[in-house]
Structure formats: structure tokens, C-alpha cells
Amino acid sequence: MAHAPQRFYLELEPPVEELRDKPHVVIVGGGFAGIKACKAFKGADVRVTLIDKRNFNLFQPLLYQVATGLVGLGDVATPLRLLVGAQRNVQVLLGEVSEIDAAAKQISFNNKTLAYDQLILATGSGSSYFGHEDWRGIAPPMKILEHASEIRRRLLMAMEQAEQTPDQGERNFLQTVVIVGGGPTGCELAGAVAELMCNAMAEDFKQMDLRATRIVLVDPGERLLRAMSPELSAAAAKHLQSAGVELLFQGRVKEIVPGEVLIGTPDGEVKIKAANVFWTAGVKASHLGKKLQEVTGCELDRGGRVIVKDDFSIANYPEIRVVGDLCSFNHTADGKPLPGMAGPATQMGGWVAKDIRAKLEGGSQAPFSFFDFGSMAVLGRINAVADLRGLKFAGGAGWALWALAHLAFMPDDENRITLLVKWLWAILTQQRSDLIITGLPSQHVGLEGSDAPFPMGQGQQPSFAALDSTLEKAIENFKAGASGSSPVEGTAA
Which positions are catalytic? Predict the structure, then answer.
């Protein structure tokens, strides 16, 4: 009979002696919200412990650039200790929180128990496959750094395989990519994949005709970027189509097997044979939301996000705050929850830290009010759409605003410089330097930014022969006529 692991109470020395008896704030999650909260406590008379299962902050909006070789892993990830480790009142610990004891004001991680006076949960979100978790290994999501690396590996391995394949039909299959989800992430990935396969590598492969590349973007709605105005959605669709991306609207994925995607549309089923399928549709909250519900009885929305009060606390536990993608904050003018994006998360984290600080110092703070700067999505080398509080931009002007906004949000100055240099180099030369294939298949495709276990990478490494088992299976299915189903193969309109 298995026994629960024994946990040891963790009593660490404070960062500085004068903080020994000061209030202890524990922040779980080193994303946008968690880092902003840490920085807002700078100079405060409190002891702050930041816990994350990764030792770096990930600039998630640029993962698609890692996936398509425009930038490297280190360009979008900054060590947590580099960001906040120098603060006199902050201590960073590596680990994954597994349990919350709200009554005792304790959390458990790495089989250790740590007490808190104030708790901020900012553990983000992962990808939802709407009940089809078996699709995850075939169509990887793009939520963590390893996902982006795996997408890049699959794209490049398919192209390498196509370069040594004499059969034109098989080459066309290897050059076909399906992307599910027409939101900002899907549009950005589609544009970047088109740029990579049709332009950036046009002279690098001699056997392939990169003009035969087929990229299909599938979305269940009637237009792209539904959070933006119809005008900008139309501009985005026009640019992507001009770049060679096919748009399949009102399409719902019904089945994914290696080498084939079956999509239901109002006009019937469409079967697309593709070596690579990538998933950018659907979001689910961190598993800590459910853990918190089990011990506090707090409410969750349909996506598993914690429904919070106007100060981001939960009923009966004012010392627990939930921010970022993990919370459902509907105390807005229209009653709609704030979106799970970097802007809201950053503002939430900063406000909660200031509110805790004000209360501890005997003061108060004005209620939280989200300032919406707008939304944007980059579509090509120098093309983006942006809606900034009613001011709409597309093309080069949209790209310039997009670049400025992302550089401003980037937490590390060194990464700002390297990103700007690589962007300008790509604009001038269309070349990409981060196209190296290394290692074995990612063991993290089935993991999420919110669900990856700590420590990671344990277990037997697969043999090199199994390097591309998914691609091999896709090719086998293609040669065998794919699956045994008989829907007519369609072309996206």
C-alpha cells in the first residue's frame, strides 16, 4: 500500500536579519503577474518568497518566434534571480506547489511545507484539447519553452525529410502544416511558419519547391482575431492569404491521427493530410485552481479559473489572492472577465502587491481598475495589426507599435537588445540563425506551463532511432492512404 510522502517543515533564514519577524508573503508563479508583484514589494518591510518550478521567467508572447527559428530560447527567457534576486527582501525557490493548507496557512512543495502570512497564486494556464487529450502528442501546443522547441524541431525535420524524398506527393505532404486556432497565437504562428518555409529558407533547400508549401489555419468562427474589430480581422486575413496561408473558417476538428486531420464544416467534412499539426486553440487554468477549491470551497468558472472578489481574494480567506490567468476577475464595467493576457496579469500582480503593502502599513488603496492598452498580433516580417483603444493600425505601422510594446514588456534589458538586433537582421536579410536541430523528441509535449512536474526530465531517454516516431507514423499513414475513414479530401477556402 502506497504511503503519502513525508513532508518536512521548511524554516529558512530570512533574506536579511531585520525581516525575521516581518510578514511573510509567498508568491507562487514567476510569470508576468508574479514578477510584477515581487517588484512592487521592493523596499517594503515584508519578507517575500517566490516559488516557481522553472528558474526563469518566460516571455510567452514570443514563443512562436522560438518555434520558427527567429530567436533563441535565451532571448525569451530570463532567470528569476536576475530579475528579482537582488532585492533585499526576496528569496527565490525552485519547486512546484502540490498542496495548499488554507486553514494552517501553509503550502507544500518538494515534500516540504512552508508557512505564509499572505499568499499570491499566479500559476498561469495551459492548453485545453476539449476532452481529446490523445491529440496532444500529435498536435503539440505552444505554452512552454519546450513546446516551442518541439514545434521547431518538427518543422525542420519534416523539411529535412522532404529534401531527401524523390516522390513529389510525399514532399508536398511533408510541406503541409495545419494550425488549429485563429486567435493571436495561431495567426502569429501561421505567419511565421509561412515566412520560414516560403521565404527564409527558399535558397537553402535544393530538392524542394518551397512554393508548394501548404499552411492551413483552422478556426471555428467566421473570422480571425475575433477580439479585434472586423476591419483588422479582414486586414489580418488578407495578409495571411497573400503570404500563402489558407483559411478554413467554421471548421471544427473532429479527429487527428498522425498525418491527417478531419475537420467538420457547414459544407461537409474536410480531410487534410499534413505532416505537422499544431494546436493554439483552447485554454485551461492551472491545476492549483482545483486544489484551492478542494480546500477552501472557492468557486471556479468553466475554464477552471478561480472566481475572485474585487481585491482578488476568495471568500473567507482574505490572505489568499489569485491573479493572472488563474483568476476570473469579472468586476469590470461590462461584467466580462479580464482576458488571460500579459497586460491584465501585470496590472493584477502590481495592484495586489501594493494593496497588501498598504494594508500592512495601515493604509488603503484605490480599487483595481484595468487600463486596456488594446490588442495586437504580428502577421509577417514587417506586418501586424493593432487596436489601441480605438486607434487601428495595420501593416508596417502596426508592426512598429507591436515591436515597441513587446520590447517595453520584456523584463530584461539584454533581451531587449538581442531581440531588436535579430528582428532588424531578419527584416534586412530574411535569414534566421536559430535553426539548429538538437536532442531527442521533447518529453514535455504532454506537459503544460501550469502542470509540468518538478523536477523535469526524469526517466529513460528514448533511443535516437525513435527520434521522429510521430513523423515516421505520419509518413506511414500517408503512404498507406492515411486512416481507413472515407471522407473526401478537401481544400480549405
Answer: 188
